[in-house]
Amino acid sequence: MSKVEALGQNAERDRVYWGLEGVYVNETCICYIDTESGKIYYRGYDLEDLVRHASFEEVAYLLLYGKLPNRRELEEFSNKLREKRYIDSDVIELVRKLPLDAYPIDVLRLCIDYYCTKMRFVNTLSVKDNYELAIDLIAKSPVVLAYLYRISRGLDVVLPRPELDHSANFYYMLTGRTPDEVEHEAMNTIFIIYADHSLANSTFTAITVGSTLSDLGSAIIAALCSLKGPLHGGANREVVNMLLEIGDEGRVEDYVLEKIKRKEKIMGFGHRVYKGQARDPRVKILKNIAKKLALRKGGDSLKIYRIAERLEEVVEKYLGSKGVGPNVDLYAGVVLYQLGIPPDYNPAVFAISRVVGWVAHVLEYWNHNKLIRPLEKYRGPLGLKYVPLEERE
Ligand code: ACO
Question: What is the pTM of this model?
Answer without folding.
Answer: 0.95
